[in-house]
Write a structure and sequence with these properties.
This is NB-ARC domain-containing protein. By secondary structure, the protein is α/β, with parallel strands linked by helices. Among the domains are: 52 residues, no CATH class; 150 residues, Ribonuclease Inhibitor (Leucine-rich repeat, LRR (right-handed beta-alpha superhelix), Alpha-Beta Horseshoe), CATH 3.80.10. 33% of the residues lie in helices and 12% in strands.
């Protein structure tokens, strides 16, 4: 039925695995809705190659079959560039900061986020590419075709706005809530200047901080700021970040950050602070004022440098 196409077979298999109680009759209905042409040949599927449209139909059907919460979490994958190896912890901590995950049946938010992540693996929406020593998935990747579908959906629902990278997204006419700035040329940088960015709750950047719109750090309501791996980081950026009083998740991992100012103590809502692989060797005493902090991630495994806590 899937014309021998690996992606179609794998994603359909994930769909079947997550619906163990469907009867044969129900599966025949699924086949008919996905391949009305084949149904005319009395159910003889196969032989011919799948068209892009038919493959898109399969991806779309499998996406639509997911529970609502998990759909939301999968839309979030559109923040990352094509081919990016995504850290599972980075993803689940961000879901939590965005409020996509709530405690359920005695499970903590972290546990629920982990079950959502496992579900996306079972569904074959994401594919594990690296495991930790404990056997857990450390990094995953999204198939290009699946990502294309997710990006289109995220754009259609004004869930995420992606500027640059491999996608040519329609610039939203309304408010931008989540912004992903991927490596782009100066023309794209001008696009961000024109957009209404005062409602941005989540800002993720890949590449250079020079492509940041001039007014970007004036976003008072940003809750998630992820600048992992960005180049061109200056001391004044940290000063401005300390004015984002609603921040819950801040990642400056692998940036040129030298130290954190005392004003970091003003970020009373901060839950995750990631300064691994930076030049920050000591945290200011004001970090002790951050009562909601759950994760302090610091130091550098490669250089064996630790982070000194107050």
């Amino acid at each position: 039925m899937c014309g021998g196409l690996p992606l179609a077979i794998v994603i359909m298999a994930g769909h079947v695995a997550c619906n163990p109680n469907k009867s044969e009759g129900e599966w025949l209905k699924v086949c008919k809705s996905l391949f009305p042409e084949s149904a005319k040949d009395h159910g003889k599927y196969g032989g011919k190659d799948l068209t892009q449209e038919e493959l898109g139909r399969i991806v779309s059907h499998c996406y639509n079959d997911m529970p609502v919460d998990i759909k939301t979490c999968s839309l979030y994958l559109s923040i990352f560039p094509k081919g990016q190896r995504i850290s599972s912890k980075r993803l689940t901590r961000r879901w939590i900061a965005e409020g996509f995950v709530a405690e359920k049946q005695g499970l903590s938010v972290e546990d629920v986020a982990d079950t959502y992540f496992s579900h996306l693996i079972r569904r074959k929406i994401i594919r594990p590419v690296e495991h930790g020593s404990n056997g857990k998935v450390k990094k995953c990747i999204v198939h290009d075709m699946v990502l294309e579908h997710i990006v289109a959906k995220a754009s259609e629902e004004n869930f995420i706005t992606v500027i640059g990278g491999n996608w040519l997204m329609q610039l939203p006419s309304s408010k931008v809530r989540r912004l992903s700035l991927q490596e782009s040329d100066s023309k794209r940088a001008n696009d961000t200047e024109k957009m209404n960015l005062f409602h941005v709750r989540s800002l993720t950047m890949f590449g250079s901080l020079n492509q940041l719109p001039s007014h970007s750090f004036k976003f008072g309501i940003v809750q998630v700021l992820d600048l992992e791996g960005c180049i061109g980081f200056k001391a004044h950026h940290t000063e401005e970040i300390c004015k984002m009083l609603l921040l819950k998740y801040l990642s400056l991992r692998r940036t040129d950050t030298k130290q954190l100012p005392k004003a970091i103590g003003k970020l009373q809502n901060l839950e995750t602070l990631d300064i691994r692989e930076t030049n920050v060797v000591e945290l200011p005493k004001t970090v002790c004022l951050l009562e909601r902090l759950v994760n302090i991630l610091g130091g550098d495994k490669r250089t064996r440098r630790a982070l000194k806590l107050p």
